[in-house]
Amino acid sequence: MSGTLLYEVRRLRGDDEFHAALELRHEVFCVEQGVPPHEELDGRDHEGLHLVAVSAGEVVGTCRLLMIGPTAQFSRLAVRRASRRQGIATALLELAEQEARGAGSSRLVLHAQTYAQELYERAGYRTRGKVFVEAGIEHIAMERQLG
Q: How far apart are CA 40 and CA 2, in angstroms?
């Protein structure tokens, strides 16, 4: 089983994991992708439900859900570079859908970076509208009915 990362996907627990998730987001979005820190930190983290993937006590993946009436907004999906291609993004997305359903949401919306569009399409998401630029990166709005 060499090369396979073992991880647990769950709700974030405590301040240490919260700060680790923010550090991971900074590493992926700001350092790797050049997103300005003031755009990555949008002031809505206190409103969100944060999910994490943890391996050997380290946060290796994270995402955020914002509940807006019957709609849940999925955002800030980040996976540590060394942990990618292990199914973490898909596992976080699946847990986010379960959490959104459990909160009574009937649909999930997100802004996918266009390079990751296929990940979301495989999970049942459909595009809405045209490609747009957010934080200097091409995105496409996508949604999935949870009914």
A: 35
